[in-house]
Amino acid sequence: MSPKVGIVGRIVLALLAVGGVSTGSSIYLLHETHLQRERDHLQDEVRIVSNLIASVAAFDRKFSASDHPDGALAATLDQTREAFDSQDGLSAAGELILFRRASGDRFVAIVHQNIDGRREAREHDEEVFLGTPYGEALAKGFQGATGTARFQSRIGEDILIAYAPVKGTDLLTVAEVRVSDVNAPFIQTILIVILIATVVGLLGTVVARREAVNVVDALDSERKKLKDFADSASDWLWVQDENFRYVSVDDSARPHTQLRVEQVLGMRREDSADESTSTEKWLQLREKLKNREPFKNFVYRARSKDGERVALSASGVPVFDNSGRFRGYRGTATDVTERLDRAQKLADAEERTRVAFDSMTVGVIEISRHGGIEAFNPKAEQMFGYRAEEVLGKNVSMLMPQRYARDHDGFIKHFVETGEKKIIGTGREVSGLTKNGDEIPIHLGVAEMNVGNEQRFIGSLTDLSTQKSLETMLRRSTKLDAIGQLSGGIAHDFNNLLGIVLGNLELIQRKLEPDSRLFQQVEKAIGAAKRGAGLTRKLLDFSRQAPEAQQLDIVDTTEIISGLEDLIGRSLSANIEVKTDLTEDAPPVECDRSDLEDAIINLVMNAKDAMPKGGRIRIANSARTVEPGERLALAGLAPGQYTQIDISDSGSGMSRETLDQIFDPFFTTKPAGKGTGLGLPMVYAFAKRSGGHILAYSEQGTGSSFKLYLPSHTGTGTGSRIGDRADDTETIRGGTETILVVDDEEGLLDIARSVLEERGYSVRTAVSPAAALEILNGDGEIDLIFSDFIMAGEMNGIELIEKAAEIRPRVKKLLTSGFTGHAFNPEEAQHWAAKLIAKPYSNRTLATAVRAALDEEISS
């Protein structure tokens, strides 16, 4: 304490003593009032400064942390020092101090107000410890309290302080004055009042106002600094009351948003929302508001009163008064419309890309520069049989046969290192490997791209299985057509010859005694002729030009295979084991019974030839459903129910090249003289003729497997052909009707005449359609016209019968042929099925067919 102040104090005390008790009491009350006013003044000012520093700190945390080398707090302290250094202080001897708690019992003054260089003269402690009066007061402030304290300093000075915490920081603002400095003006004022009360009072008022103006000017300067910060920001600064209505919104962000301040004042946040406020994010926000918790980066769509639509990102903290009462929220809001719109456009583009990727009709695979699979679309899943999650992250070589897989990584590495392209930007045919081990032909195109500065490759894959299958079917069909045209003409003439031989043999046999040796010899000749007829029929079946419309049998495959077991066993060597795995659940099939038996025997013999040193053959049947889109359906098999017959062996197997050709006519791997190359093609032709399919699976060294698919029978019927309707012991009824027989082969005309006349019919013959028309246009009754299908001249048998129907509408019709080519379409074949007998026919077959045709009602 200075001497001057001490003398003044003693004079004041003496005068007060002389003034008497009443004057002393009055002065005492005035003094206490003066001190209380000083306390209030200090407390108000320190609270204002603390709030100001808190605002600066909040701003620095958001905007200045990255700009200041020591972070947001350091930036705040720098600004605080500048503010303190720019003002003269609270009073002539007052000081503003910013404390920070260094440890549990130690507080450090980190910013002092510079007041005319008198800090050093004050000898203020840089550190204050808990346990001292000063330390106890600071401890209360750091606990969140705002208040004042009066105590003796370390050097004996009577000190008055006011303290207030800086919210959101670990700082405490302290305003400190010496009581003697506070008392000095009071004492002087009392003396002057005693001498010249009015003048002294006026002077005291002027001095007090001047000091207050200095502090207010300093605070105004800080407020202006904060306003400058706010004006330069793109964020709104907003305040909401306890009902969450906007009561204050800084308008400085107007250029940065379409939403104006006056449009939100008095509204709650959800009042301006342009989206559902019952979603999870809004429920979470309400929970935070209810619990008075801060929230950050709450993004929502809003619409102003005039219809402007914006997206805002809001952050806020709760506000409480000194008593802890909730007063509302304050915070910032940023217009993020452009950012959200860009994000939405990006999301839309990604969704379009995803939909296109998933819906592409070709397989698409994305791989990294190291060959790892990064994307695998649904079409690729269908092609390879893998789910995407089964292949993602794995090397793409898993989808390649071994002969390609071992070199693939080297190709990628070579391209990455040299840039030399072999397949990129072009396309080639390769083989893929499915999950079940099948190889599939693929057309592969590869493109290069960069994703995030990382090299990637996109492969587009087209499954060529259907195309290859169709090409193979076309190739085989072309060969079959060529063979059919060649064999058909031969078969026609050969069937005529066989017909003459068979017919005459049967006529001769009827004249012989059954017990005679000649009868037996003729019987053998008839059997040979029938076998010859069977061979020509199989040749025509093979080329799909059999003369009669297809009449199928209803066949139980389990019964057929069981019935062939003995025959198969006798045909194989002892070192070959045959195992059957048959089921009663396999539905019956609709096909030619003898053709099915031949197909099974053919496949078994083929398996035997693949196992010269012995092995195992397995024959099995089962029900099979073909679904749309699977490999069988893509190969041309109609979706539906089938019976599957499997014939597999443990033989030497076949290469891929051999497997692709085994169903081609005349292809064989057997030595010359050991095979014709027609066995498997005939099985293939039977499967197709029956509405089914056959697939072969084989690898060298692991054996082969043939899967024959035949349509399951869904209707009823016996499928019998003309000529099978009466057994050999049944007497065939004749008649007295008149039959016109038309054939360009006179030998057959003679046989037909003999057979029919023997049964009582009247027979007229014609060697050409023209001759037949002359008879039809003449007199005499004609009950039935029996005509060959193919004859020399411009008119065939059907055309002749149609002309006959015009001339004689009630005439009955019957056709015969050993070869029709492709003259019948499916509808015609069905129509003529019961009115066509195949050459060579037996005498009994002819008699049966004629009687059946005559007994039919006339068709419209």
Could you describe the 3D structure shown?
Residues 296-348 form the PAC domain. The chain has 860 residues and is of the alpha+beta class. The protein folds into five domains: 3-232, Beta-Lactamase (2-Layer Sandwich), CATH 3.30.450; 236-343, 2-Layer Sandwich (Beta-Lactamase); 360-462, Beta-Lactamase (2-Layer Sandwich); 464-551 and 720-860, 3-Layer(aba) Sandwich (Rossmann fold); 553-711, Histidine kinase-like ATPase, C-terminal domain (Heat Shock Protein 90). It has 22 helices and 28 strands. The strands form six sheets. A six-stranded antiparallel sheet has the order 3-2-1-6-5-4. The protein has a five-stranded antiparallel sheet with strand order 8-7-11-10-9, with helices on both faces. The longest helix is centred in the N-terminal third of the chain and has 61 residues, at 3-63. It is rod-shaped and about 180 Å long.
Q: Work out the count of structural domains.
A: 5
Largest sheet: 6 strands, antiparallel
Counting helices, strands and paired strands, the structural category is alpha+beta
**Radius of gyration, in angstroms, nearest whole number:** 56 Å
Write down the overall geometry: rod-shaped
Strand content: 15-25%
CATH domain topology of the largest domain: Beta-Lactamase
Report the average pLDDT across residues. 78
What is the CATH class designation of the largest domain? Alpha Beta
CATH superfamily of the largest domain: PAS domain
Could you tell me how far the N terminus lies from the C terminus, measured between alpha carbons in angstroms? Answer: 143 Å
Q: Percent of residues in helical segments? A: 40-55%
Uncertain stretches of 5 or more adjacent residues: 1-9, 115-123, 717-729
Helical element count?
A: 22
